[in-house]
Amino acid sequence: MIVDAHAHVIVPEITRDAAPGEAWRPRVYREDGRQIVEMGGRAIRSAIGEFVDVEAILAAQQAAGIDHVVLCPLVTLLFGDADPEEALSRCRIQNDALARLVRTHPERISALGAVPLQDPPLAARELRALMAAGTLAGVEVAASVDGVALGDERFESFWEAAEATGALVFIHPTTRGFPVAALQDMYLWNLVGNPMETTVTAAHMVLGGVLERHPRLRVLLAHAGGAVLALRGRLRHGHAVVAAARERLREPLADSLRRLHYDTITHDPALLRAVVEFAGAERVLLGSDQPFDMADPHPVQTVRAAGLDPVAEDQVLGANAARLLGLEVAAT
User: Is the pLDDT of residue 180 over 50?
Assistant: First the structure.
């Protein structure tokens, strides 16, 4: 079984078509054949693949050689800037719809839901309830909430719940993490800004001791962790010689980095091989980032081009995801 652990969906139940009078909902439409997502006065035109029609999504996955897909919301549909109770209501619309997709296509779809992480205790309670229901495999969370990275102490109750429930927590950049003028040129807000946002929160979590305090956490980083592994030497040196960098982390920095999971979206087989060599093949999961323009259109080929040994390749292509998701194929 080949599993895509990073793909997005906008469930029909959350769209403007489901409740035309509710302006907060995303409007998904086509203009000159191009799919557009309009939300909060902003038009998103970067989704070149199907976002809403699950049958079309599954057909595209099958064409790419993928047997099973893990669907999660568009990150802006996590509603991190909304009132927590209102965000909870919106998250539940999606969680219920995603659970229905899993029940309808159990052999083809797993899903990660949403929680209102701007209120960590509320998010923790919702995560416990979601995992107790047993249909969703975990949640997607934004790499920062109101500009605060996820290693901050305010999120401790959420990480406690994630560890206790065995939830898979997928960390995805907000796409708006750095209001830097230079990043507005040449698509750099995406090319550089998105992976750097993941880099910052991963380093924040590691140096903040989150992975050390919660060793059973299951955390998956988007885009192969951004640049956090490329910066591991600098982070290790800082942890050794700078007091501020070692206040909360006691174990070797590399140990915490190896507690994380990384997707394969590097767009470079040599870089992917380096991720596997450091993190271990058991910590890397195939991902596509469909339906976006910056998705890997051929993720299976990328993995196979990395020159991994057969056991490692099998782990990355699907065995790791099957284990984390509790799919039956894990037993074989």
Answer: yes
112/140 Cα distance (integer angstroms): 6
Q: Which domain holds residue 267?
A: 3-331
Residue partners of 99: CB distance under 8 A and separation at least 6 = 111, 113, 133, 135, 136
pLDDT digits (tens, 9 = 90+) for 12-53: 999 999 999 999 999 999 998 889 999 988 999 999 999 999
Q: What is the share, in percent, of the chain residues with pLDDT greater than 70?
A: 98
Q: Tell me the CATH number at 94.
A: 3.20.20.140
Mean pLDDT of 73-84: 97
What is the rounded average pLDDT for all residues in the chain?
Answer: 96
Answer whether 307's CB lies under 8 Å from 274's CB.
Answer: no
Strands 138-142 and 144-145, bridge-based pairing: unpaired
What is the total count of domains within the chain? 1
According to the 3-state scheme, what is the secondary structure of the chain? Answer: CCEEEEEEECCHHHCHHHCCCCCCCCEEEEECCEEEEEECCEEECCECCCCCCHHHHHHHHHHCCCCEEEEEECHHHHCCCCCHHHHHHHHHHHHHHHHHHHHHCCCCEEEEECCCCCCHHHHHHHHHHHHHHCCCCEEEEECEECCEECCCHHHHHHHHHHHHHCCEEEEECCCCCCCCHHHHCCCHHHHHHHHHHHHHHHHHHHHCCHHHHCCCCEEEEHHHHCCCCCCHHHHHHHHHHCHHHCCCCCCCHHHHHCCCEEECCCCCHHHHHHHHHHHCHHHEECCCCECECCCCCCHHHHHHHCCCCHHHHHHHHHHHHHHHHCCHHHHC
Q: 270-279: which pairs have CB atoms within 8 A and are 24 or more residues apart? A: 270/306, 271/224, 272/224, 272/302, 272/303, 272/306, 273/306, 273/307, 273/308, 274/229, 275/224, 275/225, 275/229, 276/306, 276/308, 276/312, 276/316, 278/229, 278/232, 279/229
